[in-house]
Design a protein that fits this description.
Blueprint (H helix, E strand, L loop, with lengths): L7 H10 L1 H7 L1 H13 L9 E4 L5 H10 L3 E5 L2 H10 L4 E5 L12 E7 L8 H11 E12 L5 H10 L11 H9 L5 E13 L2 H11 L15 H12 L7 E13 L1
Parallel strand pairs: 1-2, 1-4, 2-3, 4-5
Antiparallel strand pairs: 5-7, 6-7
Helix pairs in contact: 1-5, 7-10
Bound molecules: S-adenosylmethionine.
Catalytic activity: malonyl-[ACP] + S-adenosyl-L-methionine = malonyl-[ACP] methyl ester + S-adenosyl-L-homocysteine
InterPro entries: BioC (IPR011814), Malonyl-ACP_OMT (IPR050602), Methyltransf_11 (IPR013216), SAM-dependent_MTases_sf (IPR029063)
Function: Converts the free carboxyl group of a malonyl-thioester to its methyl ester by transfer of a methyl group from S-adenosyl-L-methionine (SAM). It allows to synthesize pimeloyl-ACP via the fatty acid synthetic pathway.
Length: 260
């Protein structure tokens, strides 16, 4: 997210609140994280590995199962880590930290994995600098993030209602590629997958975003409750996007592998 002002405490609090509901609605998150896992080179045999922004630990467990190694699950939201710790695996350590300031030694890690977390960092370049610092030469970082076009229908519908930013801002692909090119890695690869989900009605989408902890946290959103009239106008505007399968919500997911 290229948000000018993301309040990290608000991000941590929102995800902590969502820890007990996240897994029930995280189908897309499962899919795109699994696609990222599948992109890891077969020959990879990391000894020290981290799941950055591990959330409930689903991929921390998957990494542990794939590599048979202890995994460090790191997240900014303590509530998420409490939940993750309770699920195991035993071969994991959990740490509350910010991806933009990793409490890890230089050149200490072989693999950094991160699914749908780094779009919450106000400064992706800084997070990548940190990643490069803690990776061993030859080490690999695999992450995915959301780019412009994500939730474009919701943004478009709100634009028809008022002028506020109601939807998180996501970086244009060209900007992401420029950040990747400037991050000092030896080589990298980026590919975008589009996923379109369908909902019977708008409330199903907005409830899901809330259960994920991923509703709008950008500065500039209007405070208070959505008024009934505005909600009615939003619902009508979103209906303009309806397809046979229901109301569409598009996610543009960039899948990225970098080598130090
Ligand atoms: C959408 S969830 C994804 C969780 C998990 N990776 C998955 O795929 O199920 C995003 C996670 O990133 C975490 N996060 C957001 N900003 C972060 C930051 N600056 N440093 C570390 N974690 C962060 C959130 O607390 C949340 O748990």
């Amino acid at each position: 997210m290229s948000a000018v002002a993301i309040d990290k405490r608000a991000v941590a609090a929102s995800f902590s609140r969502a820890s007990s509901t996240y897994d029930q609605v995280a189908e897309l998150q499962r899919q795109v994280g699994s696609n990222l896992l599948a992109r890891l080179p077969e020959s990879l045999q990391p000894r020290a590995l981290v799941d950055l922004g591990c959330g409930t630990g689903f991929f921390t467990r998957a990494l542990n199962a794939r590599f048979g190694r202890a995994v460090l699950g790191l997240d900014i939201a303590e509530g998420m880590l409490r939940y993750a710790r309770a699920q195991g695996p035993e071969q994991a350590a959990w740490i509350t930290a910010d991806a933009e300031a990793l409490p890890l030694r230089d050149s200490s890690q072989d693999l950094l994995f991160s699914s749908l977390a780094l779009q919450w960092c106000p400064d992706l370049g800084r997070a990548l600098n940190e990643a490069r610092r803690v990776l061993r030469p030859g080490g690999c970082m695999a992450f995915n993030t959301l780019v412009e076009g994500t939730l474009g229908e919701l943004r478009g519908a709100w634009e028809q209602v008022d002028g506020y930013i109601h939807v998180n801002r996501f970086m244009p692909l060209a900007q992401l590629q420029a950040v990747l090119a400037g991050a000092g890695f030896a080589r990298w690869h980026c590919e975008v997958e589009a996923h379109v989900l369908h909902y019977p009605q708008l409330s199903a989408l907005t409830h899901e975003l809330k259960a994920l902890g991923a509703h709008n946290l950008n500065a500039g959103r209007p405070g208070g409750l959505t008024g009934r009239a505005r909600l009615k106008a939003l619902t009508a505007a979103y209906e303009g996007y309806r397809q046979d399968a229901g109301l569409p919500a598009t996610y543009q997911v960039a899948q990225i592998i970098l080598y130090k």
